[in-house]
Amino acid sequence: PLVDTHTHTFNLSALQSIPLHSPLALPPPPRRPGPTPGILRRRAGAAMAARAPYFAPEEGARGIRPGESPAAALRRILATPGAHQAPCCFDALGARLVERAGFPICFMGGFCVSAARLGLPDVGLISYGEMVDQGRLITEAVSVPVIGDGDNGYGNSMNIKRTVKGYINAGLAGIMLEDQVAPKACGHTEGRKVISREEAVMHIKAAIDARKESASDIVIVARTDSRQAVSLDEALWRVQAFADAGADVLFIDALASIEEMKAFCAVAPGVPKMCFSI
């Protein structure tokens, strides 16, 4: 043969015997079956585990099982040991890429949805209706649980209850709620301000009430921006209060060191913690 398809070496003497004007007709190489989607997901999970030892890519913990709610799937994943990576997405195609890459959870971020849908920065311009609509399109496209960014709930406690119920109906597995004043700002900017302790805790309680009223198990992710706005001690107080109110996951934005992360993880040890990796 002119080409050995197994070693990709060329027979030069055979090539030299062919006139320049003659067509070079080679038999097509044998078709080999490619890897299945399941194999691709396992390879992706193994690759991520090699890069991040705390990543837990157990095949049994991934995806929403038949008869299982998105929130139940998310709770099952969070109950497994290790750190669970949840890349951000802003549309259905991005969510499918996250799922195809083997990640167990997807996060719909307000920053990226505002940028992609409106072409505007994350300064409180995206609305509840636009986020719910985007979330519904995303959850319909994937079979992994999706956490939706609920910003500051788009209003007071009554608005928060409506927001939580809307996210439940859109098929989102979790909702993240923060304690910034309106209009809110991106978590990576200076000059943020937060509402009072009492109002912040009331918002988390309102979210839990909405969950109960909907007979849902949506995961409530309680976020505080008080680390940058006030102090680390204030942020630690707030996440403890959020845990006492019934939040399922805690998040302090803008922690400044490993020591601060350790102090955060020491609060409510039985409650999962979230962090952003930029």
From TrEMBL:
Pfam families named among the record's database cross-references: PEP_mutase
Transmembrane segments: none
Superkingdom: Eukaryota
InterPro entries: ICL/PEPM, Pyrv/PenolPyrv_kinase-like_dom, Pyrv_kinase-like_dom_sf
GO MF, any single term: catalytic activity
Name of the protein in its database record: Isocitrate lyase
Species annotation: Aegilops tauschii subsp. strangulata
